[in-house]
Prior knowledge:
The protein is an alpha/beta fold.
Amino acid sequence: xxxxxGYIGDKKAFPILIGGLKRLEYRGYDSAGVALLNGSLExxxxxxxVSDLEAFVAGKADDGTxxxxxxxxxxHGEPSDKNAHPHVxxxxxxxxxxxxxxxxxxxxxxxxxxxGYTFASDTDTExxxxxxxxxxxxxxEMSSEAAVQLALSKVVGAYGIAVLCKKETEKxxxxxxxxPLVVGLGSGEYFIASDASPIAEYTNQVIYLNDEDIxxxxxxxxxxxxxxNTPVSLKISNIxxxxxxxxxxxxxxxxxxxxxxxPKTIEETFRGRLQNDYSEIVLGGLLNVFPKIEAAKRIVIxxxxxxxxxxxIAEYLFEEYxxxxxxxEYASEFRYRKPVLSSDDVVILIxxxxxxxxxxxxxxxAKSKGATVIGICNVVGSTLSRxxxxxxxxxxxxxxxxxSTKAFTAQVTVLTMIALKLAKRKGTIxxxxxxxxxxxxxxxxxxxxxxxxxxxxxKAIAEKYHEAVNALYLGRGYLFPVALxxxxxxxxxxxxxxxxxxxxxxxHGPIALVDNNLPVVVVAPQDDYYEKVVSNIQxxxxxxxxxxxxxxxxxxxxxxxxxxxxxxxxxHPAVAPLLAVIPLQLMAYHIALLKGCNVDQPRNLAKSVxxx
Length: 612
Ligand code: F6R
C-alpha cells in the first residue's frame, strides 16, 4: 500500500524513480510524485497515475542524481495534487515520502500548530515532515538523521519513509516500522524501494530493513542504526528476480497473464517437492517444525481476503486427511481478540505479499503466546517470511494484478502438500490414498491447461451476464471457499455486488435474492455433494434464477437444467478447488473488461495492504 522509491548515485535519478514507481504502481495508484536534490529541493506531484506524473514532469527534471518518489493509496485525505507525496515541510527544509499511518497525527499536528506550523494538505505525512523540521530547527548542530530519529520517537503508528533535506545535499535518510523498505546496493549508488521489484534490474544485493531501523544513504557509504541510536549489523541478501516476469508479455493485462500462468506456477510450487515418483513430499522449510505440527492438537490458520479463502480450503484438507482440528481466522479479527493459544498450538499465516499489516500483527500475537508460527508466502524476503519460525514459499512468481489469482492456487497447492505430508507422518491416510492424491495434485497443471484453452466459451458467458447488478456464488465442501473466492474476484474488479455462500445455506436467507435477473454461479462437479447441489440448483431454477454451472466434463444431468455450463476435467474433490477456481477468475476478468473496468488496478484497492 503506497510505493516508495529512491536513488542516490551518479545516474540521472528521475528515469530511475519513474521506472521504479511504475513497477510499484500495483501498491497504490491515486496520485504520485517525486522530489529531487539538484542544488535546490525540487518537488513534483500529481493526482492520477504514474504516467500522468511523468507527463507533468517531462522536461522539468532532467538533472539531479538524488531523489525519492511515491505512488499513493489514500488513507488521510482524498486523492488530490495537494495530498500526493512527497510532502514538503512548512519552511521547505525537508521533503518526505511515507507509507503507513501516523496514528497520533492529530495530537502532533495540534502541538506543531502551537509552534506556528500551518498545513497545506490533509495528510498525516505532512505532520511528520513538519515534526522533523521542527526538531531540525531547534539546534544548529542537528543533522537531518538526528531530527528524523527524534521525530520518529514521538510517532505512534506505522511508517516506511524516505527523507531529503535541502541543506544536506548528498544524503537520503530512510526508516521503517511496520511498512517494508528494501535498500539495493550498487557500486557507488543505492536504491530504495517498498519491495525489491524496482531494484532487481540494477543489483541483486539488497538489505531488508527491520522495524525501527534508520539508514543513511550517501554515494560513498551506507550506515544503519535504529530509532534508539544503537548500531545495527548489516545483513545483505541476494535476490533472484526475473525482470521479464514483471512485464505483461503478450497479454493486455497482468491479471490475464497471471491466470494463464497457473499451470506453470503450480508446477513451480511443487517442483522439487514431489519426489521419488511422487511417493514423497519434501518441504525443507518445515523440516524442523514437523514434529510440532504432528503433535499439535489444533492448527490455527490466519490470512486476509484471498489468502483466507486458501486457509478455508486447508481446513477441509487437514481435517479430512490429517485428522486435526483446524480454526481459520481473519487476521484483522484475530489480532484484537483474546485468543486462547499456547506453545502446543501451531499457527499457519498465509500471505501473498508477506507484508499485510493485519497478518503481521496476528503473527506477533501468536508468537507472544508461544505458538509455533509458520508462514506460507510468495514474496521472498518479505517481513512474514523473516518473522516466522519456519515456512514454505509458494514460488508463484511476482503477482502484479491486484486481484490475486496465481498466488491463490499456489497457496492451495502448498497447503495440500502440507496436509498430505502431515497425514502420512501421522498415519491417518493409507499409502494408496496418499499416492493417489499426490498423483492427482501432479496432474492439475495439465488439467488447468485444458480449462484455459476453453477461454472463448467463458468470454461468451461473460457477455451474457456483464450487465448484472448482483450475483450469487454457491459451492459445498471443498468448493464452498471457491464460491467465496469467485464472488470476491467478481466484486473487486467489476464492482458487481457478489455474494459467496455455502449452497446448503441458501435456503436460510439468500434465496430471497433470486429472481430472473440474478446470475447464480454454482460450482457443481461430481463429488459427494453433487446430488445435494443439484437440489440447490432446482431451488434456484424454480424461482427463475439464471444458473451458470461449473461441472465435471461429460456431466449430462445438469445440461438441460441450467442456463450455461462450463466443464472442468474430472479430478479428486480434494484438489478440485485448483481447477474450479480458474473459470471463475476468467469470468470475472471478462465481465470486468466488458464493463470497461481497469482489471489490474481496480478502484479503491491496492495490492499490499500494509496499513490497518
Ligand atoms: C483479493 C486480494 C486480497 C488479498 C489480501 C491479502 O484478490 O488480493 O484479498 O488476498 O489483501 O493479501 P496478502 O495475501 O498479500 O496478505
